[in-house]
Amino acid sequence: MIFLEAKKVVKKFANHVALNKVDLEVPENSIYGLLGPNGAGKTTLIRIINQITGPDEGEVLINGRPLQPTDVHNIGYLPEERGLYKKMKVGEQVVYLAQLKGLNKRDALKKLKYWFEKFEIQAWWNKKVEELSKGMQQKIQFIVTILHEPKLLIFDEPFSGFDPINTNLLKEEILKLRDKGATILFSTHNMESVEELCDHITLINNSKTILHGAVDQIKQDFKENVVELIFSGDENILRSKLNDPFSIRDIKNINNHTKAYIELGNTGTINDLLNILIKDIEINGLTEILPSMNQIFIRVVSESNQTKPVETVTA
């Protein structure tokens, strides 16, 4: 079931097109990556979903109906630019923000106690925000974002300022939130996090959607039919056994083994390759090479930039 949907959304600012007929389909209980280079239009779309601004054309739907002002109570938004009051004490601030999200003080304190203990930050309750590190402030804002248990969570660069340990801690919590029923829209430049967390993605560049779909399927679509073969023995035997459609892209000697990267061509299969080699070469491993999301991101954005049309905006 599609939980969040954007249909042909257009947004213009003066002579700049921020979004040009952008579509988005976020399945319920999924983690959906909203990707793109700086200035692509991601933040504008997020602001429209949060009803901070409205689209010039198109519409946003939640559960199949148009977005309504009351839907803000079912959305938790962690923006890239953080918004804590630096002179205010942490405890006073989080209780105040929780009440703004509809929680009474008693429930807010109960939930905050749980999360402060979980993140081991009880000692910061009476500290001023300005005394906290960037990563610590990030934990506080993450807690405030999820405290009222919204159905839709929007995270914009949530791991900014975190060390690897705290990044993993937050990733685990995001996965748990999805498993408990939340739908998550996740915007980041970290493609490793996309591969770890996201089920589907939409990639925006120059205000337009240039790629969308399930992460696993996208990686399959962009693969180059290359396998990594780990073997023991004379690499000259390998070279002598391979002919069309197979070809060797690269060979590397590592300790007592050799790694060969072999192109299968348009008609070769892994089974065909094994049948050719298995009698003459000791095979220790064979893995299909899939491109990383980082490689796909760079390729698709670069190709999009090369074909970018000149746009004229009229008032």
Please provide a written account of the structure.
The protein is an alpha/beta fold. The chain has 2 domains: 219 residues, 3-Layer(aba) Sandwich (Rossmann fold), CATH 3.40.50.300; 66 residues, Ribosomal protein S6/Translation elongation factor EF1B (Alpha-Beta Plaits, 2-Layer Sandwich). The protein contains 10 helices and 14 strands. The strands form 3 sheets. The chain has a 6-stranded mixed sheet with strand order 6-7-8-3-9-10, sandwiched between helices. The chain has a 4-stranded antiparallel sheet with strand order 2-1-4-5, covered by helices on one side. A hairpin with a 2-residue loop joins strand 1 and strand 2. Helix 2 packs across helix 3 and helix 2 packs parallel to helix 4. It is globular, with a radius of gyration of 25 Å. It starts with a strand and ends in a 9-residue tail after the last helix. The relative contact order is 0.14.
Count of strand segments = 14
The H/E string reads: EEEHEEEHHHEHEHEEHEHEEHEH
Find the CATH topology of the largest domain: Rossmann fold
Q: What is the topology, as strand order, of the major beta sheet?
A: 6-7-8-3-9-10
Terminus-to-terminus distance:
38 Å
Enumerate how many helices there are, as a single number.
10
Instruction: Please give the domain count.
Output: 2
Q: In this structure, how is the largest beta sheet organized?
A: 6 strands, mixed
Question: What CATH architecture of the largest domain would you give?
Answer: 3-Layer(aba) Sandwich
What characteristic shape results from the CA principal axes? Answer: globular
Q: Spans with pLDDT under 50 lasting ≥5 residues?
A: 310-315
Chain-averaged pLDDT:
91
What is the SS-derived class? alpha/beta
CATH superfamily of the largest domain: P-loop containing nucleotide triphosphate hydrolases
> How large is the share of residues in beta strands?
25-35%
CATH class of the largest domain: Alpha Beta
| Share of residues in helices | 25-40%
- Please give the radius of gyration in angstroms: 25 Å
